[in-house]
């Protein structure tokens, strides 16, 4: 303050109070963030919608405008199916939740209350009608391009899993209560899981979406541990890698020198899928919920090069729809960039420790070298057996020569 200038305490107080009313909620109140710059910079396209904008963050982008008209079309079909002539009851219900929904977003939303309510209704009803139409073919319009072109269908599955492309779930619950039987929210979850089934990298298990704790060897989550060798080095240490069927993607096991890994399908959308779920875990207030981050980190240990991918593919552990082992290797090698973790609650800490103990034993490495160099084919085994027989016969002859029978 300059000498001789008195402070206007009232003016200062008013100014501070106005700023306090304009500040966004604390992060703990938010659940829908934007991906931070460092993480986005690794692969920006993985976080960007291709076909549809859900919520305010990507709203208004020119490349996504085609689906905005489709949202209106879906609402019109919904009202017709429910024999309703107006969206009034949906507006009334969502209007009471508009401020609560706005607080779920970490960044200030420039939409007016009316625009926000309209967006929540159109986006929410679009999602509900989409998952219903996916489940029940007779509900679809015969000219609906979503179900006439697999490319659009696949792109929508990807876009609806994006971290930034979301609505608060309570908005979907409220709309579903108005459209269907109230409080039948498990039905909505089941419809969503069915819709995303083609996107899941384990092809058929819903654990990945629900975030259920894996049933594997994650009980010992704390303590000191170090990363395990890659696939090639594990084989050199005598570790056998096998595919295990009928398990959740997370349920990796290691016992008696055998690592059992559920199969992983890798296609065009897999990187985006994993990256966005990893982003969700990075922003989750409970830092113990890092199942995707831990799984991807574990697979990154196994995959250092295209040769590792090739071996895992031969074992049936990786189903590579991309066709290029180097591309898959690069995807996993870059997953850890700008990602925090693994934490002290690493889900695979117990497995990692036991694998490293196994690999550190000289006997295991010696046996692996013996198997690799001398016992890896029937002819090699026969050659060794013949050599042993010859050695035995030679030794016997030597004994009889030195100690002739009387």
From TrEMBL:
Keywords of the record: Membrane, Transmembrane, Transmembrane helix
Name the UniProt record assigns to this protein: Uncharacterized protein
UniProt organism field: Camellia sinensis var. sinensis
Transmembrane feature ranges: 379-403
Top-level taxonomic group: Eukaryota
One Pfam family hit: DUF247
InterPro entries in UniProt: DUF247_pln (IPR004158)
